[in-house]
Structures are given as C-alpha cells and as structure tokens.
Amino acid sequence: MEFLFNINVQFYILAYLIGGIPCGLLFAKLFTGKDIREAGSGSIGATNVLRVLKETNPKLAKKLAILTVICDAFKGIAVLLLAKILHLEIATLWAIAIFAIVGHCYSPYLKFEGGKGVATGAGVLLVMLPIETLIAFFTWFIVGKVLKISSLSSLLALCALLSSSYIIHYDLEGIHTHAPLWIIAFVIVYKHVPNIIRLFQGQETKVI
Fold first, then answer.
1. Half-sphere exposure of 36 (CA within 13 A, CB side)
2. pTM greater than 0.70 (yes/no)
3. 207 found inside a domain
4. How many separate domains does the chain show?
5. Which sequence ranges form a coiled-coil region, renumbered to this chain (predicted)?
6. Which of 28, 74, 82, 176 lies 20 to 30 Å from 66, alpha-carbon distance?
C-alpha cells in the first residue's frame, strides 16, 4: 500500500473521485426532486438536465443545465490547477485530466455509470490546451446553433480539437505524444455510441 503515499497516485484518485461527482443529477434532485436518469437519454449531463426539466420548468431547466456545465468543467479544472501549483510533471497532469474524465463517465457513486465526459473534458483541456479548446468550443457553438443536435456538435468539436492540436502543438510539450488526447477522445466517443447509432438512423433528438 506504499504506492498510496505517492503524490501522483493521490492526485489520480482525487481526480477520479471529484470527477465522479454527478453534478447534473444532484442539481436536478435538489431543485426539482427528479431523477434525470429515469427520463430522456438517462445521462447525468447538462443536455439531459435541459431535456428532462424543460417539460415542467423551462427557465429553471436552462439555469440548471448551465450550472451543470460549469460545475462539470470545474471538477477537472480544480484538480489540475492544484496539481500545477504543486509543480507536478506534465505527464502527471495529463493523467489527472484522463482520470477526471473517466470519473465523470464511470462514477464510483453511480455504480460506474455516468455522463458523456464532454464538459469535464472541456474543462481539463482548457487548462492543458487552451487554444485548441477554444477552437473546439467555437465549433460546438456553431454546429449546435445550426443543427441543434448536442451529440453531433460535441463530436465535431472533438474532431476540431484533435485536428488543431496537431497543427498548433504537433509535439506536445513534456510528453511528445498525442496519446492522452486519443485516450480522452476514445472515452468520449465510446460514451456517445448510442447517440452515433441514433444519428445514423436519423432518430437523434434535437435540443430546442
């Protein structure tokens, strides 16, 4: 058990546990008493918060969805910033970013179920690759406004981030590989498999 005294391991565990906090589920329960896992897509993310709660209270639904995005993003940001203050190595920071996303997608508090990882991913990548993340956000915003399909805008934003990372940071500082980005992308895409199937079937729900 000596490895638990390693600061890197401690941060990996912390990132996973904090990443696993189901903000959307907690906010919906607290303010409306609803379990958003029982309706809509069953996800705990902001999109499902909006989809489920807007039926009864559209204004509150929007507020809680925005709050969910902010808090889900901040989960990863907070741990990474603390790790940066303590001058942990860049490779450790990338691992922390991955663990925060995995925690959100496979929460230890929800029997390893969770969200899609988009907001938490955006948070950690804003810290690690701010320019690429802003490009991704712009892509997400434009696609979302035009097509109004949350999953498609998120996936295209991810593609934009990956593509731009090879242009802006072809050789990522400190690790010299884009492997962490591909791991993050794999987790997010895997969590979107049901959405991708619905997209091909033309059955994916729009967010209005």
1. 32
2. yes
3. no
4. 1
5. none
6. 82
